[in-house]
Write a structure and sequence with these properties.
The complex is a heterodimer of chains A (about 800) and B (about 200). By secondary structure, chain A is mostly beta strands. Chain A has seven helices and 47 strands. Classes of the chains: A mainly beta (about 800), B alpha+beta (about 200). Chain A: Belongs to the TonB-dependent receptor family.
């Protein structure tokens, strides 16, 4: 009723004055994020097509107005043009807020090449969308090797984990679309559950410089970003079809994006990939087929002031593991090492038999943000992940189809982040994280649990700040505290419990017992402090230097604490230790970057010292009814790693380019004065490319990959006795394979059909010379050679 | 005025979203039952391997070689030999492979698993320093590729000597050869590899 009355009153009022065009409108244009007046803004009056400009106080006036609607279009350099409708009722005043720093406030530095970085003073490298497209049929770990200093630790050729400057697994944090991946990343044979086709851009950050994501990234952080939504009415997509000769593989992936000017966006992506047995130059690698299905979708609304997004992704990988790698005893392992070729070689097949893995990962995320005037941005995020891991071993009878490992890991995370950026020269960021994780090990496997049931609780709080001290000097710093609690229920064999000496220290953990086993309830708390400080100094407009110090702290993972038993594929007993405390890393790094159109150089050095570094080494052996086995025990020591990474590109002419990537890392156990195991050997890549824009963006390149022999390795070889002959047999599990050199060919051209549709055709030949080689960082190097020649064809449609 | 109203509206929706998130977390967290996990008794392990040699002419002349691994492949094992072979005598070997991790329900691995899948298994024997010979019996269970599995065997003790006797069980061997009776294989993986030491022929 009240409203109605008002409307009536207003109508009468406006009617009475409708012919009176003498009013003045005064506008005041201010910057959204810090309230400063925006002088010089252009104001276009659509009603009479006239222009005016804001004065030094951001004010302007338009005279001789009638009551009614006034349409103004306001523009200012660096701002998104704004169209507003003002209701003129007599003399009017309105404050108009413009988004002046939209670009700077995206929390990323946009460089001239369209690359967006996540950090300011960390050693960060970005892999662009076009480069990622070349890896459509491969895995995340393969694509990351584009970055100098990143290699991979493999189990065969489909289980590929990134190693950043010599560190991997729990020491490398992977973020998918802002969500920290929780997928049982502790094991070497557990590849990250990422569909490379869902990524638009990937950042690799060496060291733990980015505290907002976690304080335990001793090795580094991999940030996977989806396509950024653009505020335009547009629909576009991409489809990639690929085929590979080696493994007779084929893959397809499609992405469709819909954006609206209003800020709404939606994206859907699906991919499928299949391959059969791969082939080394001399034989088929039986049972190395794989099958991968992925799907992801996002939608939401992003505007400058607020937005939300919903994301869901699904990935299922079924991966066959080289049949010849299944061993029963140490003598089998010795025979494999000595024979130099796999014990099981069959004709090509797409079949995937045990041993194999079947891993399914679901990720769902809800995000919301809101920007407040003169203040900053508040973001909220909730995510849920479900990781189901099935490992099928070679078993007999009905158990053939029952997995030997059946784990379900569920993780819920809530994040709150406050970004105070009203002063662009002094940005502050505060945040909190709460996480709950539940691991369930299915007892129906009929095999004792490798990883026990546990609940894990994490709480983190952090602050980071970025100060622009001068135009050419930026300093940033961060501080973070994390609390972790792991609450496990684990069965120990009584014999093991006593042998580990737990009976004296931990008898209070026992909550139940069976004739042969104790049920224990270990509850451990860890407090972790991490910090970083860095600076970036521009020497001139072409070069800058970066210096960074980071303190990181990582609590032991479930595998390091609780492993106990035979690890089949490695033919060894692995024992964790519940006495472990966290490991603490101090890393200093420096970079020099020089970038001109002709010459680009990025040089990085680092030194990382890690106290209480957790690693596994042989300590003893045990005589079982399968013969003698070595016992490997997780231990803590003090370690140090140092090295350099170089990346250079030189354009001889506009068509000819030479690129080099070189990485060198050394790692030592300082207590035992031993080299660390699984350190990538020195490697250098050279690539020469010819490209010609005029010929449908044709390019052809030849790449040389040279891996040296790892000359510093810990000798963990052991000797077992053949009881029958009393012969002493050395098992050479430590010796690295010799150096190798590979050549790869790649050529592509893009045919444009219209402004928005194009077809890119790419032909590649990997391992051009069909070289036989073995890689020190492949866990299956004892059993078979790596992949031989592979001819790949890829069609990429953009529309 | 209008802006303020808009803001408070957004604040409200922010609060709602926060509340919703926390509710969701609570709900999903609560589906975790704090139940005590069930113990897993290994299904596939072999805890007791026993070779019983009985003299065909004298049923009281018995040699028993036994190996006990309470934790199966997951722990240490101990071997024991009782009795001694008699020079010139012929023995029949009876094999027993049992999973006795649950003492109340021991599982006969030999008859229930291995013989059921005889085409994927093969027993190989070996001796060292002791004058024992063996033959695979005519009624032995058929093994892979026309071989004899090695479950029913006959052993002959030669001159007095002391040495070792080895038994191996190979799963999914690539090739098997029993032409020399003891048996040899390539490929596959060893499920059992036990050597009994200081076996005597008197």
């Amino acid at each position: 009723m009240k409203h109605f009355l008002w409307i009536v009153v207003l109508s009468i009022f406006s009617l009475a004055h409708s012919q009176n065009c003498t009013y003045t409108f005064i506008g005041e244009i201010v910057d959204f994020h810090d309230g400063t007046p925006m002088s010089g803004a252009t104001v276009f009056n659509e009603n009479n097509s006239s222009y005016t400009a804001a004065d030094i106080n951001g004010k302007f006036s338009i005279k001789n107005l009638c009551n009614g609607k006034l349409v103004l279009v306001i523009s200012h350099i660096g701002c998104e043009t704004k169209r507003i409708i003002v209701d003129i009722v007599g003399d009017s005043y309105k404050k108009i807020v413009m988004e002046h720093h939209a670009e700077e406030l995206e929390e990323v530095a946009v460089t001239s090449k369209g690359i967006t970085k996540t950090t300011v003073t960390a050693q960060e490298s970005v892999i662009k969308s076009e480069t990622l497209a070349q890896y459509s049929s491969l895995s995340l770990g393969d694509a990351l090797k584009e970055v100098s200093g990143v290699s991979s630790i493999n189990t065969g050729s489909t289980i590929v984990k990134p190693i950043i400057n010599g560190l991997h697994s729990s020491r490398v944090l992977i973020l998918n679309n802002g969500v920290r991946l929780q997928d049982q990343e502790w094991g070497i044979e557990h590849a990250p559950n990422i569909d490379i086709n869902s990524a638009n851009q990937i950042s690799v950050i060496k060291g733990s410089g980015t505290l907002a994501y976690g304080g335990d990234a001793i090795g580094g952080v991999v940030v996977i970003k989806p396509t950024r939504s653009i505020r335009k009415d547009t629909l576009y997509g991409r489809t990639i079809l690929g085929a590979q000769t080696n493994g007779r593989g084929y893959n397809i992936t499609s992405t469709l994006n819909k954006n609206y000017k209003s800020g709404w966006f939606a994206q859907a992506q699906a991919s499928f990939r299949k391959n059969g047995d791969f082939k080394a130059p001399e034989y088929y690698l039986t049972n190395t087929g794989s099958d991968s299905k992925g799907f992801s979708t996002r939608f939401g609304k992003h505007t400058f002031q607020s937005g939300f997004n919903v994301y869901y992704s699904y990935l299922n990988n079924e991966i066959g593991i080289l049949g010849a790698s299944h061993i029963g005893s140490i003598f089998d392992l010795r025979r494999a090492i000595n024979s130099g070729e796999p014990s099981l070689v069959e004709a090509f097949s797409y079949d995937i038999n045990p041993p194999k893995q079947d891993v399914t990962h679901h990720l769902a995320k809800l995000g919301y943000y809101k920007r407040f005037q003169n203040f900053g941005k508040v973001s909220l995020q909730y995510d849920y992940q479900n990781n189901r891991r099935l490992e099928f071993d070679v078993r007999i009878g009905d158990r053939r189809n029952i997995p030997a490992v059946d784990l379900e890991l569920q993780t819920h995370t809530v994040l709150v982040d406050l970004n105070l950026d009203s002063n662009l020269k002094r940005k502050w960021n505060f945040g909190m994280m709460g996480r709950y994780q539940d691991n369930f090990a299915n007892p129906d496997t009929g095999v004792r649990r490798l990883i026990p049931d546990y609940n894990k609780y994490d709480f983190g709080i952090y602050t980071t700040t970025e100060w622009k001290l001068q135009d050419n000097l930026v300093v940033d710093a961060g501080l973070r505290y994390d609390f972790n609690r792991i609450d496990a229920k684990k069965f120990y064999r009584k014999s093991r419990w006593e042998e580990r000496g737990y009976d004296a220290e931990f008898s209070n953990l026992i909550i139940d017992e069976t004739p042969t086993q104790f049920l224990t309830n270990p509850v451990f708390n860890y407090h972790n402090v991490s910090a970083s400080i860095g600076s970036k100094f521009f020497l001139n407009d072409k070069s800058y230097v970066i210096g960074n110090y980071a303190l990181a702290s990582r609590p032991p993972n479930a595998s390091e604490l609780f492993s106990d038993g035979l690890h089949h594929s490695a033919a060894r007993f692995e024992l964790g230790d519940i006495r472990f405390n966290k490991e603490v890393s101090n890393r200093i790094s420096g970079s020099f970057v020089h970038d001109t159109p002709r010459f680009n150089l990025e040089a990085e050095v680092f030194y990382n010292t890690i106290n209480d570094f957790m690693y596994i080494r042989p300590v003893d052996d045990i005589l079982t009814n399968r013969g003698p086995f070595p016992i490997w025990e997780y231990q803590q020591t003090d370690a140090e790693l140092y090295g350099f990474n170089l990346s250079t590109a030189y354009n001889f002419t506009s068509s000819w380019q030479w690129q080099n990537k070189t990485a060198f890392v050394k790692g030592y156990d300082r207590v035992e004065s031993l080299p660390l195991i699984n350190m990538p050997p020195f490697n250098t890549f050279n690539q020469i490319t010819y490209s010609n824009e005029a010929w449908n963006q044709f390019s052809v390149s030849l790449k040389s990959e040279w891996f040296f022999e790892q000359n510093e390795w810990p000798n963990f070889n052991y000797v077992v006795q053949n009881q029958l002959t009393d012969e002493e047999l050395e098992i050479k599990i430590s010796n690295p394979p010799p150096a190798y050199h590979l050549l790869h060919f790649y050529s592509e051209a893009t045919f444009s059909f219209s402004e928005k549709t194009s077809l890119n055709v790419a032909l590649g030949i990997n391992n051009l010379l069909d070289t036989s080689y073995r890689n020190y960082l492949n866990q299956l190097r004892f059993f078979a050679d790596d992949l031989g020649r592979n001819i790949t064809l890829q069609l990429r449609f953009n529309y | 005025m209008k802006i303020k109203y808009l803001n408070s509206n957004l604040m409200k929706s922010t609060k709602c979203l926060l509340a919703a998130l926390f509710c969701l977390t609570l709900v999903t967290s609560c589906d975790n039952d704090d139940d005590t996990p069930a113990p897993v008794l290994e299904e596939e392990i072999i805890t007791n391997v026993t070779l019983t040699f009985v003299n065909d002419a004298n049923a009281s002349d018995v040699v028993v070689m036994s190996n006990v691994a309470p934790d199966g492949q997951d722990g240490a094992s101990t071997s024991q030999v009782t009795g001694a072979f008699t020079t010139g005598a012929t023995y029949s070997l009876s094999l027993s492979l049992v999973n006795a991790e649950d003492p109340n329900a021991p599982e006969d691995v030999l008859n229930e698993d291995i013989i059921q899948e005889a085409d994927e298994h093969f027993f190989a024997y070996a001796v060292s320093g002791i004058n024992l010979t063996m033959t695979r019996d005519a009624n032995d269970v058929a093994g892979p590729d026309g071989s004899k599995l090695g479950v029913n065997t006959t052993w002959v003790a030669g001159t007095a000597s002391t040495g070792d006797v080895q038994i191996r069980l190979i799963h999914e061997p690539t090739t098997v050869d029993d032409s020399n009776e003891f048996g040899s294989v390539s490929g596959g993986s060893e499920d059992i590899n036990i050597t009994f030491e200081d076996v005597e022929i008197q």
